[in-house]
Design goal:
Helix content: 55-70%
CATH topology of the largest domain: Arc Repressor Mutant, subunit A
CATH class of the largest domain: Mainly Alpha
Number of strands: 5
Number of domains: 2
Largest sheet: 3 strands, antiparallel
Structural class: mainly alpha
Shape: elongated
Oligomer: single chain
CATH architecture of the largest domain: Orthogonal Bundle
Strand order of the largest sheet: 3-5-4
Radius of gyration: 23 Å
CATH superfamily of the largest domain: Winged helix-like DNA-binding domain superfamily/Winged helix DNA-binding domain
Strand content: 5-15%
Number of helices: 8
Length: 206
């Protein structure tokens, strides 16, 4: 924002394209050959498709380096000892994918930690239904029954159907669940997109 005598002017900047992100990352890496061109291309396209925020691209590269270092250390420990200096592995697509997976998992659990009371009850309802039937695919209608039971136990007024439906869409958008495209939401099947045991453990820490 710019402040001047006539008020406030908001400056809007367009997000970087994947070509611009790749070029800037190459400049930041100062010609280093430790990361493959394909890996940089993957980072650039992933960031551009989500936000175009260059900081995220740099964070992915940093995390990919940490993962590569850890893997190299493990291989050195498990392999034969040698007096030769340890060679740092070239960062490839596998390292970038591992970094992306790690970051996505952290964002999901950060979302869970910041969930409201009713959002947590809805997530607990999903875990309860999973424990009852033993499969990761659950019906939205069954989830609502558990949620209402929890509200009764906690002496809380239940939220309306549209509010709960919106919450579930938020969970799907956050990557916690996947869902079938059913015209009737009550018949909609949800599938855990994270480990239900990890979700239960995260909820117990609240």
């Amino acid at each position: 924002m710019l402040f001047h005598g006539k008020g406030i002017t908001r400056l809007c900047f367009q997000p970087y394209t994947h070509v611009e992100i790749k070029k800037i990352l190459e400049q930041r890496l100062a010609g280093s050959t430790l990361i493959s061109s394909d890996a940089l291309q993957l980072v650039s396209r992933k960031v551009a498709s989500v936000s175009g925020d260059l900081r995220r691209g740099l964070e992915i590269c940093r995390l990919a380096v940490d993962i590569a270092k850890e893997q190299a250390a493990d291989q050195s420990t498990n392999g034969q000892r040698s007096n030769a200096p340890q060679q740092f592995p070239k960062l490839g697509i596998a390292h970038v994918n591992a970094a992306l997976k790690h970051m996505a998992g952290n964002l999901k659990f950060q979302f869970i930690r910041n969930a409201s009371m009713h959002e947590q009850l809805l997530l607990r309802a999903a875990v309860s239904e999973y424990n009852r039937i033993g499969t990761e695919e659950i019906a939205f209608s069954a989830l609502l029954k558990h949620y209402r039971s929890f509200c009764s136990t906690e002496c809380l007024e239940t939220l309306g159907y549209e509010q709960l439906r919106f919450m579930m869409q938020t969970f799907i958008g956050a990557g916690i669940f996947m869902a079938t495209n059913d015209a009737n939401d009550l018949n909609r099947c949800l599938r855990f997109n994270i480990n239900p045991e990890d979700l239960a453990a995260s909820l117990r820490k609240q």
